[in-house]
Design brief:
Number of strands: 7
Structural class: alpha/beta
CATH superfamily: NAD(P)-binding Rossmann-like Domain
Bound molecules: nicotinamide-adenine-dinucleotide
Helix content: 40-55%
Order of helices and strands: EHEHEHEHEHHEHHHE
Distance between the termini: 28 Å
Strand content: 15-25%
Shape: globular
Strand order of the largest sheet: 3-2-1-4-5-6-7
CATH architecture: 3-Layer(aba) Sandwich
């Protein structure tokens, strides 16, 4: 990935941060995007220690102008965008009867609409360069469903359909669009689960343990690499055997 330019959203913590570090280790110049002002700078420091030209922008992915500015500045600095990892994501869990419209809309805006916006913005430069790798972070629950997560599951299933459609639209331009669907990965998102729920999940994972952000980062790096050039519209499951696609 030497000299490739990669944008990673939600890169200030959890999976996104480890993905950014991993891509940097493989030689990419990484642009980190997140809405967490202090943590994004800490993450940038870590990434710059490996890939000094890397950059970070504080941006809420639901803000069209913020995303547009980040893409503009990325193109001004590097003149290209080779890889986009749409990783930013949130949960606002509740059973459907108690789910507010605000929680539905917020999750869809962060997890899905932002991907539509950012992908549209980076497609032009990718098409011009006739090269691109887009990796969208879905979730195992996007294919299995999960009670209490109708908004989150709809967004993650939406990403799979979105990715397949765009993959078809731009396959001829040497741009691939794939998903990575993590199972249960030890991050802040799963820390929020109560111990009983965690135990119940662990008992269902054939490998008997939660995955690590590194497990996901390796899968992302593969799909973002030149060598994965004949794979598009796919979903790569990283879940310890919890679900087999
Ligand atoms: P996390 O909470 O540790 O990280 C989420 C990241 O997204 C943070 O950097 C946060 O700043 C960023 N983010 C959230 N809202 C944003 C916004 N409006 N604008 C910009 N950035 C925003 O969570 P994680 O576990 O690392 O999750 C990363 C991705 O992986 C998410 O899309 C999540 O749905 C997905 N995922 C996680 C798991 C898991 O078990 N942890 C499983 C399946 C899928």
């Amino acid at each position: 990935m030497r000299d490739r330019v990669a944008i990673v959203t939600g890169a200030s913590s959890g999976i996104g941060r480890v993905v950014a570090i991993h891509l940097a280790k493989l030689g990419a110049r990484v642009v980190l995007i997140s809405n967490e002002s202090i943590r994004i700078l800490e993450a940038l420091e870590e990434v710059r220690a490996i890939s000094p030209e890397s950059e970070a922008f504080e941006a809420d992915v639901t803000s069209f102008p913020c995303l547009e500015e980040s893409v503009k500045l990325t193109l001004e600095k590097f003149g290209r965008i080779d890889i986009l990892v749409n990783n930013a994501g949130i949960t606002r869990d509740a059973l459907l009867v108690r789910m507010s419209l605000a929680d539905w809309e917020r999750v869809l805006a962060v997890n899905l609409t932002s991907v539509f916006q950012l992908t549209r913005m980076i497609l032009k430069p990718m098409m011009k360069a006739r090269y691109g790798r887009i990796v969208n972070i879905s979730s195992v629950v996007g294919v299995t469903g999960n009670p209490g997560q109708a908004n989150y599951v709809a967004s993650k299933a939406g990403l799979v359909g979105f990715s397949k459609s765009i993959a078809l639209e731009i396959a001829s331009r040497n741009i691939t669009v794939n998903c990575v669907a993590p199972g249960f990965i030890a991050t802040a998102m799963t820390d929020a689960l109560n111990p009983k729920a965690k135990e119940a999940i662990l008992s269902r994972i054939p490998m008997g343990a939660m995955g690590s952000p590194e497990d996901v980062a390796h899968a992302v790096a593969f799909l973002a690499s030149e060598r994965a050039g004949y794979i598009t519209g796919e979903t790569l499951h990283v879940n310890g055997g919890l679900y087999m696609g």
